[in-house]
Specification:
CATH architecture of chain A: Orthogonal Bundle
CATH superfamily of chain A: MetI-like
Structural class of chain B: mainly alpha
Shape of chain A: flat
Radius of gyration of chain A: 28 Å
Oligomer: heterodimer
Number of strands of chain A: 2
Number of strands of chain B: 3
Structural class of chain A: mainly alpha
Helix content of chain B: 55-70%
Chain lengths: 317, 421
């Protein structure tokens, strides 16, 4: 009885008037919601913007009489001055630096991930993980500096001044490996840590050693996450720019010798657009053709990585 | 039911025991390898820092074109002379054309004594670096360095120099490594970060709120989510190209400031302004910001929302008064991390055409710009060894600024975890 009275005193309902139970239109709230929807949809505009702007300029490039699509994908000379547009000279350098980076980052990154998730004490992990994350947070231009002032002299002192040029793809690739090492190790470690304890305990109780448990039980169970990490690492290496712009060389060069200077796709874009560039020239348009190829490559790799995670993830419980 | 087939006591096959030792050995060996890889990763970080520190200080041999002692008037050293005398000295020692050019940049009357002194240093005395030695050699091999300097550069003065000094921090870019600094670059970076944050923060948080609180699970919203995840993996240079095509060219009237009646020097800025750079970086960090914001909002317990709805709050009231206050420290941490990403970004800004050589401070969104990472890139890319020292100095300043920003993020994160019950 008492509650009823207090309620009534707070909220005196006029019984003569019927309360409309229909939802009241709240225009302010609608407005906010519209703004939020715009924010969400903005990312789609970004993607469309990238595809449209890059595609438009690239089409101008492919449409010009000097360019032959077949020669573009199979040619090994990139010399816009004489109308030679063979993307292979740039792609080969990109693939070479990426290969070096993967060669360094995948074995090391996996070892670090296994150590952190299977061996390290929580205390050690709490120190090592943030330390490696520092590596991931350092701007790439600093890595470029490191490649040029440390890695290149090191390679030159090992293999000889005459074999190793001042600018070379090996040095850039190795340092790039260090850059993507934390990415691969931390993503793989997440995947390994997600494997339930019971699997490890079962293996250990059967008499497996720690190594056997880690390599034959935990790693296979986390394989999808590890594969996704590696593919994301490749995508990152393909799109990495500053290290190759500083250390890999200026000038397209179709070579498979890692100690020679060669220019990657990203390096070429940066060098040409950093200089004096007149719009609507074929040079300018060609950059966008390279750009869209780069976009398609990295986007493809990212999508594959996401698919792998979604499709092959082993779900426990 | 009775386990007839199990023979307890002899489950071990004959090969088991002899192989056991080898298995344990390889287990131990690989544990070492895993550990060493981890140590290697940390060593590389140390090596990176040492390489930078090694170039931060050391002996420098400089030669002057004109001996400063010969310019002294009545025995008063140059830096103690008053302004008028300095102007006279400057006028006497530089060509008329150069003096006119100096006048054009900024009339001599408006310059301070110190500025005139620096001009004399730059244009008349012209100290030239003939050789630098890294820090390690300068410390551990000092006699050899001094002997080499005395032998090869007899006229040069050899000083132990710290490259990051007050001149470095307060001077604009210069072609003379002894006078070059990062002032314009730091200001450019700060301007760009400020405007980038102003653009990206509301958009990013808005999108995160929409995706977490409003978006139902339909096709359109799934596309948005996938799209954001994909954008996060697009190389930064692609954003640079978008910026070049869209902000620098198509939206030139807006980004050059012509639309707002700004006087535009046609020979310089065009659309290659701070505003273009900020817009580009804002789009670049947006996916990162959204993903971090979503995580922060997702971590707010549902019971809070239900309690709010239960007392009759509308959706926006619930978000504004309950969800956001609880998620804000997470959102801010994510924002700071995204900003530090933008801070170190170089490639997209080079692509949209950052000016590499500007000597005056940026004064607003429509001025030309250079940033700290770009300055580092330029100095590293120069063939002369001297500029590597400047690059190392620039890197030190860059890393210190990033450290400050990230320390703020860590403080926010700690405050957030303290709030959690």
């Amino acid at each position: 009885m008492q509650t009823k009275m207090t309620l009534r005193s707070i909220n005196p309902v006029n019984t003569d008037q019927l309360i409309s139970l229909r939802k009241r239109p709240r225009w302010g709230e609608r407005l906010i919601q519209a703004f939020l929807l715009f924010c969400g949809a903005f990312s789609i505009l970004t993607t469309l913007g990238i595809v449209y702007e890059l595609g438009k300029e690239a089409l101008l490039f492919f449409g010009s009489p000097e360019v032959n699509l077949w020669k573009f994908f199979t040619g090994t000379q990139w010399q816009p001055q004489v109308g030679e547009f063979g993307i292979l000279s740039l792609v080969s350098a990109t693939l070479m630096t990426t290969a070096f980076a993967i060669l360094i980052a995948v074995p090391l990154g996996l070892c670090v991930a296994i150590y952190l998730s299977e061996y390290a004490s929580p205390k050690a992990r709490n120190i090592i993980k943030p330390t490696l994350e520092i590596l991931a947070g350092i701007p790439t231009v600093v890595y470029g500096y490191f490649a040029l002032t440390f890695m290149t002299p090191l390679l030159r002192s090992i293999f000889g001044q005459n074999t190793v040029e001042i600018y070379n793809t090996a040095s850039a690739g190795l340092v790039m490996g260090i850059l993507i090492l934390p990415l691969i190790s931390s993503m793989s470690e997440d995947a390994l840590s997600a494997v339930p304890r019971s699997l490890r305990e079962a293996a250990l109780s059967m008499g497996a050693t720690r190594l056997e448990t880690a390599v034959r039980i935990v790693v296979p169970a986390a394989l999808s996450g590890i594969a996704a990490a590696i593919i994301l690492g490749i995508s990152r290496a393909v799109g990495e720019t500053m290290i190759v712009a500083i250390a890999a060389g200026a000038g397209p060069n179709f070579t498979l010798n890692p100690f020679k200077a060669a220019e990657t796709m990203t390096g070429h874009i940066v060098r040409i657009s950093g200089g004096d560039l007149s719009y609507d020239s074929i040079d300018y348009n060609s950059l966008f053709a390279i750009g869209i190829l780069l976009f398609v490559m990295t986007l493809g790799l990212n999508i594959i990585s996401q698919r792998i995670v979604r499709r092959f993830r082993e779900v426990y419980e | 039911m009775t386990g007839r087939n199990y023979q307890i006591g002899s489950p071990i096959s004959p090969e088991f025991t002899p192989r056991l030792e080898a298995r344990h050995r390889s287990s131990k060996l690989w544990e070492m390898i895993f550990k060493l890889s981890t140590i290697f990763g940390i060593l590389v970080l140390a090596l990176l820092m040492l390489t930078i520190i090694n170039s931060l200080a050391g002996y420098v041999a400089t030669e002057n074109t004109v001996d400063p002692a010969s310019l002294a008037v009545n025995g008063t050293p140059l830096d103690e002379l008053d302004k008028d005398t300095l102007v006279t000295i400057l006028q006497e020692n530089v060509s008329k054309g150069l003096f006119r050019q100096i006048e054009r940049e900024k009339p001599v009357e408006e310059r301070s004594q110190e500025e005139i002194y620096n001009l004399i240093l730059d244009k008349v005395i012209e100290p030239k670096v003939v050789k630098t030695w890294p820090l390690s050699e300068s410390i551990f091999n000092r006699p050899a360095v001094l002997a080499e300097a005395a032998e090869q550069y007899p006229t040069a003065t050899v000083n132990f120099t710290f490259w990051v000094n007050s001149t470095f921090l307060s001077s604009p870019q210069s072609s003379n490594p002894l006078l070059a600094g990062v002032r314009t670059a730091i200001l450019g970076s700060l301007w760009i970060i400020l405007i980038t944050t102003l653009i990206a923060f509301p958009l990013g948080v808005g999108a995160a709120i929409y995706l977490e609180e409003y978006a139902s699970d339909n096709r359109f919203n799934r596309i948005i989510q996938t799209n954001i995840n994909n954008l996060a993996g697009v190389p930064s240079i692609i954003y640079g190209m978008l910026g070049l095509a869209l902000f620098v060219r198509v939206l030139e009237p807006l980004t050059s400031g012509a639309m707002f009646g700004m006087t535009v020097d046609p020979s310089t800025a065009n659309g290659r302004t701070i505003l273009s750079a900020s817009l580009t970086l804002a789009i670049l960090i947006l996916p990162l910001l959204i993903i971090n914001g979503q995580e922060a909002i997702r971590s707010v317990p549902n019971s809070l929302r239900e309690a709010s709805y239960g007392v009759g709050a509308t959706q926006w009231q619930t978000i504004w008064h309950h969800v956001l206050p609880n998620a804000i420290s997470g959102i801010l941490t994510g924002t700071i991390l995204s900003i530090s990403r933008a801070f170190g970004e170089t490639a997209p800004l080079v692509v949209i055409g950052a000016a590499t050589y500007i000597t005056y401070d940026p004064d607003g969104p429509f001025s030309k710009f250079t940033t700290l990472p770009i300055q580092v890139y330029q100095w590293t890319a120069r063939p002369q060894e001297v500029f590597r020292n400047l690059a190392a100095g620039g890197i030190l300043v860059l890393l210190l600024m990033l450290l400050t920003v990230n320390a703020a993020a860590i403080i926010f994160r700690n405050r957030q975890s303290k709030h959690k019950l």
